[in-house]
Amino acid sequence: MTDEFPEFQLRLPNGGPLARGRQTDEPGTNGSRRFVVGPGQPARPDVVPSFSTRAASAHRRREELIAHGDIRQSQRWPGWLETTGEITFNSSSEAAAVLTGGNINGYIAWKAEDGRPLSDFMPGTGWGPNRAWLVRGSNVTGVDVVQRLWLPEGYVTLAATRIRQGVTPGTSKDQLRTFVEEDYESALTYNQKLGLVDALHAFLSRMKPGDTVCTISGGQLYVGEITGDAEQTESEDGRSNLRRPAEWQGIGYDYDDLPEELQQKLSVQLDIVELTSVQALIEGLGLTDEELADEAEAIDHDPSVEIPAITARRELELPEPTDGFAAELLVHSTGWLREVRDLLWDDRQLVLYGPPGTGKTFLALKLAEFLGGGREQVKLVQFHPAYAYEDFFEGFRPQEDPDTRDVAFRLTAGPLRELADLASREGNRHVPHFLVIDEINRANLAKVFGELYFLLEYRNRSVRLTYSGDDFALPPNLFIIGTMNTADRSIALVDTAMRRRFAFVELSPRREPTSGLLRRWLTSKDKEPEPADLLDALNSRIVDADFKIGPSYLMKKGVYRDGGLERTWQTKILPLLEEHHYGEGIDIEKQYGLKALRRSLRSTAPEPPA
C-alpha cells in the first residue's frame, strides 16, 4: 500500500457508524485499483432489495465474506456487522457496496477527513462531478465485443487499430488530432477523423473512474461503472486497443421500454456520447420509487433533498379541462375540450383549422396557457411566405458588438430552439411547454422545419442540426398547436407529410363549439340575439364551408355601439365575400347585405299568436 492516499471514511446509512479504508495503487483483476478495509470496520446488517441484480458481483462477494466469517455480528456496534480482518476489494465501489448493502459509487461515497471525495485524489485529468457515457461496442468490425469481452471480463473498450503506442490519459486534444491525422492519413475521411479525435479525447481524458457507462447490445441497454484508468493494449484482432475496467450490472434493460428522453440521447450516431443530462433516468432504470429510496438510504442520502432519479421520472401531465374552463371559453361541452387535450397528449402536435373568425388563435393560446400552467410556458410565432428555417430554429444573423460596434454574423436561436432549450432544462422536464404557430399553412413547412420535420413524427430520435452541428431532439414536454385558415388553403390541399404529423381539429360555423358560440356570448353579455340570427342566415347562403364566416367578427365591443353592426358588416364581412366571389358577377350586397338578411329573417319568422 502506498502513502499517496489519505484514510477515507464511509458513513453507513441511517446515521450509522463510520467505516474506514485506504485506496491502493495495486491493480485489481481487470485493471481497477484495489481498495483495502481493515479489521473492526462496521457493515450494514441487511441489504437493499435491488442489490443482487444491480451489483451482482459485490452481492456475491458480501455473501462469501459473511459465509467465511470475514464479516460477522459486531460487539462494538450492536445490531451492525463488522469486519474481522483486513479485506482487499477489487475497487472502492465494491468495498462501499459490500459495507452498505447497496449499489453505490465508491469514488463519491468514500471521503477524506476534510470531506473531499476519493475521486479528487485520483491521478490523471478530468476530475469533477461524475458523468455518464454511451460507448458503442455491439458492432466493432463485425463483432459484438459487449457480449464477448465487456460483460464477462469487466471492460469497456475503444477500437483504435492504427493509433500509435504511447497514447495515455491526459493527452491533449491537439496532440490527438495530430496523431490521428498522421496515423490514419488515408484510412479515414475528414469527418471520420474528427469523430475519432472526439472519441479518443473523451475515452482518455474526460472519462474517469466512478463515471457511469452504458452500451447497447441485442436490443438491451447495459449499465455499469468505470472503475479504473485507460490503458493501451495490443489485442489480437485490433478491436479493443484502448480499454478501461468497468463493473457491469448483471441485467439489461429493453431498449423499447426506456424513457423517451433517454432513447433520444442513445440514438445519436457517435461511438461515444455523453449522457450526463439523462444520468438520473439511467440511475432509476428497473427500480420503483421505493427501491430508489432504499438505495438512497444505503448512501445516507439527505432525506430533505428529493432523490434525483425520482425527480427525473416525475410524470409529465396535461391537466384535465374543467367545467369552469369550458364556461370561460363558452365551449358547449367540457368533453370536447377533453378530446382536444387527449389528441395533444397522443400526438403532441395539433392544428385547429377553419374559416376566418372562428377563434382558432384565441382558443390555441387559451388551451396552451391552461394545459401548460401559465403564459411563461407558451410562445407564439406567426408564419408567413418569407418565413424560413433560420427564422424559426437557428441561423446566422447579423449582430452588432455593443463594445466595438462591429457587425458580424452570429449563430442565433429562433423561437423553437429557445422554447426547446427552456423545456429541457432540469426541473422543467415534467412541465408542458407550448409553441403556438399562427397561420401555419402560410409558410413552406418543409423549408421552415428542415430536418426537424423528421422529429415531429419520431420524437424518440435525434438529428444532427444544419448550422450548429449539435445533436438535437424535441423534448417530450414540448407541444405544438398550429392554426390554419381554410379560406387561404383548403385542408384537402395539405400534403400527406403534414397530415401524418399533426392531428387536425375543425372549428367551423357548421358545428359546435363554433356554431353556438356567438349566441352563448350574447347571452352572457345580456344582449339581443339578432346578431346570431343574422350570422346563421348569412352562413346558410354560403355554399363553400371553407368561406363561412366565424362568430368572432361579432364578438367585439365596437359592434354594439351605434351603427357598429352595420360598419362591421360593410368593412369586415362583405369584403371577404367579395374576394371569394371575385369574377362571378354576384351582387354581394343583395345576396349577403344586412337588409337582405333581415328581410329573410322577417319572412321566416313565425306568426305571433292571435
How would you sum up this structure, described in words?
Helix 6 (173-183) packs across helix 7 (190-206). The chain contains 24 helices and 23 strands. Strand 1 (8-11) and strand 2 (18-27) form a beta hairpin. It is an alpha+beta fold. It has 4 domains: 8-121, no CATH class; 132-283, ph1033 like fold (Roll), CATH 3.10.590; 323-506, Rossmann fold, CATH 3.40.50.300; 517-604, no CATH class. The chain is elongated. Helix content is 34%, strand content 19%. Strands 8, 9, 10, 11, 12, 13 and 14 form a 7-stranded mixed beta sheet that branches. A 5-stranded parallel beta sheet has the order 16-19-22-15-23, sandwiched between helices. Strands 1-2-3-7 form a 4-stranded antiparallel beta sheet, covered by helices on one side.
Features:
single chain; 610 residues; alpha+beta; ph1033 like fold; Rossmann fold; elongated
Itemize the secondary structure elements and their pairings.
Blueprint lengths: L7 E4 L6 E10 L5 E5 L4 E2 L7 H4 L1 H12 L3 E3 L7 E3 L3 E3 L2 H9 L5 H4 L22 E4 L9 H9 L1 E4 L14 H11 L6 H17 L5 E6 L2 E7 L4 E2 L9 E13 L5 H7 L5 E3 L4 H5 L5 H10 L9 H5 L10 H7 L4 H14 L1 E6 L5 H13 L5 E5 L6 H4 L1 E7 L6 E7 L1 H9 L9 E6 L6 H5 L2 H6 L5 E2 L6 E2 L5 E8 L10 H6 L1 E4 L10 H8 L5 H12 L22 H17 L7 H5 L1 H11 L6
